[in-house]
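Supplementary Data S3. Sequence and structure tokens for construct A.
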Amino acid sequence: MKSALWILGLLIGVAATGCYDSAIAVDDTRPVVAMAAVDADSDDGEEKIPLDQVPANVMSAAQAAIPGLVLEEAERETEDGTVVYSLQGTADGEEYEVEVSAAGKVLEIEKEDDDEDDDNDDEDDD
């Protein structure tokens, strides 16, 4: 009797495992599709655009934020559902990147540091 119950339990276990595996196989495709959609949104579609395609209010805002800024490159991307322009240029010999919303609000200004390999800060120089 004990062996019959053991065999019955084993058969139920195997049957349940077989059903479980097929359910996993069907459900495994859904998270992959969801992850692909999340990954596509996280890339945010950054694209280089010609300066003549940058709205005038965006260019004016960047140039007002950094007097003398000469724009050289532009990118358009979407961050959290908002269109943002990233403008690169130079002023007084320094390189800058300015992020401006489509509404013309300056979101961020980055000054590029050309002295990343400054020998004065390296203690191992002999």
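Construct B, processed identically:
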Amino acid sequence: MREYRIKTLRLAKAWSQEQLADIASLSVRTVQRIENGEQASLETLAAIASAFGVSVTDLYVGQAEPAEQEQAKAIDERLARIRKRVELEAKFYRDLIGFGITSLFLLTLNWLTSHSITWAGLVIGILAALLIRRGLIIFIFNRRIDKWKADKITRLLGR
């Protein structure tokens, strides 16, 4: 029987078991079983840790077994990479909205002052190019670079 800090964390946030289950995309019965001391899979612990915004290792009461610690550490690292990626994507979408608002403002200002879209079009074009560059890096190149790095590490370790 394994002890976790899940109930303590849940009560600190004033969440019901149903709310935690909903946020972590788990069944209520799964949350109940874990809180009653049953063993949880690392995937389940990762979902719960993500819901609380903590690491998987933070869910354990006391020291986990060495094998569990290694697996939990690997999941924590994966969660950190996923959170970083999601934050980059969210920042891109915020910048995209800002680009739209800025473009409308520049076009309106340009039209009110000169009735032609010359300088505003140039500025908007430059901003669009920079935004497209960032989108390509975030959504396309980062995945390929990560895959290349993993393949390279695997090849080097294989030698």
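The chain has a mean pLDDT of 88. Residues 80-158 form one domain.
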